[in-house]
Specification:
Layout (H helix, E strand, L loop, with lengths): L2 H24 L9 H5 L1 H11 L8 H4 L13 H36 L7 H30 L7 H9 L3 H22 L13 H22 L2 H10 L10 H8 L12 H28 L5 H27 L7 H4 L7 H22 L19 H4 L3
């Protein structure tokens, strides 16, 4: 699929995602209106505010009144206070621009290599949805330093604060990214018309299975080995650093660990095994996605495999998190809003290990298949001279 055809739906999806996140952040003020708690319930309103605040231009009181500035409590801090407000606004501006800047290239690559035709529509929708979560996480990451500085204590335990800021605001991105993905796929269905034949590739089964196994083994390294309690504790305390860069443990865990688990000591083995079912599901989804992905791509390239594996890992994480919500939700003491707050977590680690796993799977696939890309699929039908299909680039 040509770049110009894939760029239009990618830009539409980026604009839609950015606009929806801005609208969601602007709606946070509605939760403070009289009667909102009575309609939604105090707990639901508080949880929604927690979801929307990272995307809201309305600063918290600690920023509004000049955190860390000499002055009476509750009294605006004059010029210094305005500097904190300016930093907060700058952080939000960077965040929204970064969402668009990170979403468009990934969506462009996915739509070009995974166009929503010939049975690929569901795969394209899921992949673009997952990439929306990645774009939101990266946007929060690059804008976090300005947001931390706006609170007036950026020099105190900066790395733990950075880890906490990266984890914020992911829940609302899950919803808005799904809407943006639908818009992207619908636009791609229109632009792909007339692009010529985009057949599914016939990848050798043995090569696809081996590549999926290698990629899944990389994901399992984080999920099974590094996420084990003693190993995770060692990662948490291994690097101490000094000064502003002290205590990087929380940040390392966020970007390296896809889960956390320990032995069944102190709990019934059946309950422990049921809880581990989410991890098994995660690995199964990743393996199946990597097994299927080469046959869906119009051309198997390292960037396409890496991006697809990142999306597959994010989707597998969410599938496992839904299983845990269902498992933990057996008790009516917890409401659905509280239980679903964990959905969308782990995206930084999914990005780290998904990239590594995708590259490993692509290299394995090429080595196993002998590097002959043209032998993977039958030659497309000859297009009439001068037609759009004759000019189509894979």
């Amino acid at each position: 699929m040509e770049y110009r055809r894939a760029a239009i739906p990618a830009v539409i999806g980026g604009v839609l995602l950015t606009a929806l996140l801005w609208w969601a952040g602007a709606s946070a003020n509605a939760l403070h209106l009289p009667g909102t708690s009575g309609v939604l319930g105090g707990r639901v309103a508080a949880e929604l505010e927690h979801w929307l605040t990272p995307w809201s231009y309305d600063p918290p009181n600690s920023v509004r009144f000049g955190t860390g500035v000499i002055g009476e409590i509750g009294e605006p801090a004059g010029t210094d206070g305005s500097r904190y407000l300016a930093l907060y606004e700058t952080a939000l501006q960077i965040r929204f621009v970064a969402v668009f800047a990170f979403f468009v290239p990934g969506a462009l690559l996915l739509v070009r290599r995974l166009p929503p035709v010939n049975g690929r529509t569901a795969a394209t929708l899921l992949a673009v949805w997952a990439w929306g979560l990645v774009a939101g996480t990266l946007a929060v990451t690059v804008s976090a330093p300005w947001l931390i500085a706006a609170y007036g204590h950026g020099s105190y335990r900066f790395l733990p604060q950075l880890a906490s800021a990266i984890a914020a605001g992911r829940q609302i991105v899950v919803v808005t990214a799904l809407v943006a993905a639908v818009g992207t796929v619908l636009a791609a269905r229109v632009t792909v018309k007339g692009a010529g034949p985009l057949p599914r590739r016939n990848v050798p089964a043995r090569a696809a299975r081996l590549a999926a196994t290698v990629g899944t083994a990389v994901i399992a390294l984080s999920l099974v080995v590094l996420s084990y309690q003693s190993v995770a504790a060692a990662i948490q305390t291994a690097a101490t650093g000094g000064g502003t860069l002290a205590e990087p443990g929380d940040l390392l865990r966020q970007w390296l660990l896809l889960g956390a688990w320990a032995g069944p000591a102190g709990a019934p083995f059946g309950d422990w095994l049921l809880y581990r079912a989410a991890d098994v599901l995660l690995l199964a989804v990743v393996w199946w996605a990597l097994r299927t992905l080469p046959g869906l791509l119009t051309r198997v390239t390292v960037p396409a495999m890496a991006a697809g594996t990142v999306c597959a890992t994010v989707l597998a994480l969410m599938a496992g998190q839904v299983v845990r919500v269902v498992t933990d939700g057996a008790s009516l003491r917890w409401d659905l809003m509280y239980l679903s707050s964990a959905i969308g977590g782990g995206v930084p680690a999914a990005l780290t290990w998904g990239l590594i796993a995708g590259v490993a799977a692509a290299v394995t696939l090429r080595a196993t298949a002998g590097g002959a890309e043209g032998a993977e699929a039958p030659a497309p039908a000859q297009a009439p001279a001068g037609s759009g299909a004759a000019r189509q680039q894979s």
